[in-house]
Amino acid sequence: MSKIMIIPLDERPCNINYVKYLAADTSVELLMPPIKILGNKKRKADYDTLIDWILNNLNGINSIIMSIDMIVYGGIVPSRLHNDSIEVLLKRLSIIERIKKINQFIKIYAFNLIMRNPSYSSSDEEPDYYEIWGRDIHLKGVFEHKKRLGIISEDEFLKLQSLNQLSFQKAFEDYRSRRRVNLLINKAVIDLLANSAIDYLVIPQDDAALYGLTKIDQEVIKNYIKEKNTSNKVIIYPDADAVVNTLFARALQENLGVSKKIFVEYAVFQARDMIPNFEDQPLYKSVSSQIIASGSVLEELIEEADLVLMINATSEMKDISWQDSSIMSEQYNNLRDLEDFIRKAQEYLKHQRKVVIADIAYSNGSEKKLIKDLISKDLYFNLSGYAGWNTSGNTLGTCIPQGIIYDLFGKTKSHLDFLALRYVEDYLYMSKVRQEVTKDYLPKYGLNYFDVFETRGLVAQIVNKKLNEYAFEDFNNNYKIRIIDCFMPWKRMFEVGLDVEVSVFETKTRK
Questions:
Q1: C-alpha R_g of the chain
Q2: Using one digit for the tens of pLDDT, what is the confidence trace for 14-31?
Q3: 261-411 fold
Q4: Which candidate, 117, 246, 278, 432, has a CA 20 to 30 Å from the CA of 60?
């Protein structure tokens, strides 16, 4: 049995629990730091304790999947807030070379984000001044980038000139100075890759965009990768919270000496060139990158493929809040035949093909009609993988690894439990319960979307109750989904922490 150490991006369930589901019934033993030392949202991890834990637990480890943002800054949100010098950060980064000196045969699969630059004003995950100046900071970056490229409009140039308030300038300089430091860490990580201290590197893009400060930094990093001749060992694509799953699939396949072949089919051809929400490149590029990063191969002949990745997407992507709009629904259905998509999935399964569905029709949740059709055709627990959460990158980085692990280890209990988790979280919570609780319950109790007051308080109880009710109503008779645990990790509605399991049972058809 191989032994893989995981140093996650932060303490949220998506960064810790998903990979546990994926690994549960495999030939891999996972080792993770105690959650209490990993920090909490804006509170950074206990760095010294974390480093001691890593060094004291290297015995028997074959591979390490490591978040650079965790070991250097103490987590994803602290990476946007710190005031540490480059010297301090580089000293923390040196843990990688120390690990390799202890055991040069340990493979290190690392990931290091390019700092994001959200387009909205909110300090929920950013510095306090982002509540006031966030939108303007983002726009200044966009306008500066367009100016460099020579494509700035007259109106944009005038808006750029108008951003001259002293308080804004101070906020912008603080923000940019942190970006400069973080960019130096990105380069230092590429140096470690060039020197073989890191074996494979993913540079994910969180909340990416076509123009702006993040895109400028990305170009600098791409040029540095070329300069260091590391292009064959590093990949850049949109994602953040699912990278650990992707690298787990890669480490697992490399440990077993295999590489799965994946055939890709889009619901409509136009989806290939669609740029998903929060991303900066066409969907087909991200799909290809995620398959490569997982240690797999993009296969052009379905007859040669181990897995069929079916992508539910159309020529554009809207937020989940558009899903119940009749206008939006009509636009989607005019281009895409969802019934035909389901029929193809049925046909593939009938012929013993292993089908993974990436549900990218909307951001931030599943497409309700797709899930209902999967349920009505009794396909939902016969899939090799499914995901439909937050971003396209998150979805791909979840369902592709699940499909790979299914192909290697079959229809295990943990596979079924993880499918159940996806349906409860992506469909029941994100597409239904989150909106209902936000609208109908939070105002009653003086709470709001970004502050539900407690992790395991009243809101978690309401969410749990509603999820159980919908799980009973929506899923057919052959399976019983049980929600074991439900909590609100960062005391907000955006994400939910869940532990679920599914069991097969027989009963009369409900009327």
A1: 23
A2: 999 999 999 999 999 999
A3: Rossmann fold (3.40.50)
A4: 246
Each domain of the chain, given as residue ranges in start order, spans 2-118+168-256, 261-411, 439-511
Q: How does pLDDT run across 180-218, given as a tens digit for each residue?
A: 999 999 999 999 999 999 999 999 998 888 999 999 999
Residue 497 CA to residue 17 CA, distance in Å, equals 9
Contact 263, 403 (CB under 8 A): no
Half-sphere exposure of 376 (CA within 13 A, CB side): 9
Q: How far apart are CA 46 and CA 64, in angstroms?
A: 19
Handedness of CA 129, 213, 72, 34 (dihedral sign): positive
Give residue for tokens 């980085």: 397
Answer for the pair 323, 368: CB distance below 8 angstroms, yes or no. Answer: yes
* Separation of alpha carbons 80 and 92, rounded Å: 17
Cα dihedral 295→300→306→312 (10° resolution): 90
Domain 2-118+168-256: give its CATH code: 3.40.50
Q: Taking the alpha carbons of 12, 13, 15, 16 in that order, is the dihedral positive or negative?
A: positive
Two structure tokens written together for 88: 């301090």
Q: What is the mean pLDDT of the chain?
A: 94
What residue type is assigned to position 295 of the chain? G
Q: How far apart are the first and last CA of the chain?
A: 48
Phi-psi region of 365 (alpha: psi -120 to 50; beta: other; left: phi over 0): left
Mean pLDDT, residues 467-494 taken together: 91
Q: What average pLDDT score do residues 441-469 get?
A: 96
Q: pLDDT for 230-276, tens place per residue?
A: 999 999 999 999 999 999 999 999 999 999 999 999 999 999 999 99
Residue burial 257-296, b: 16+ Cβ < 10 Å; e: rest: eeebbbbbebbbeebbebbbbbbbbebbbbbbbbbebbbb
CA distances from 142 to 133, 171, 206, 215, 239 (A): 14, 16, 16, 9, 20
Is the model's pLDDT at 511 over the cut of 60?
A: no
483-503 average pLDDT score: 96
Q: Which helix (H) or strand (E) holds 66?
A: strand 63-67
- Which distant-in-sequence residues (6+ apart) come within 8 Å of 219 by Cβ? none
Query: Tens of pLDDT along 74-126?
Result: 999 999 999 999 999 999 999 999 999 999 999 999 999 999 999 999 999 99
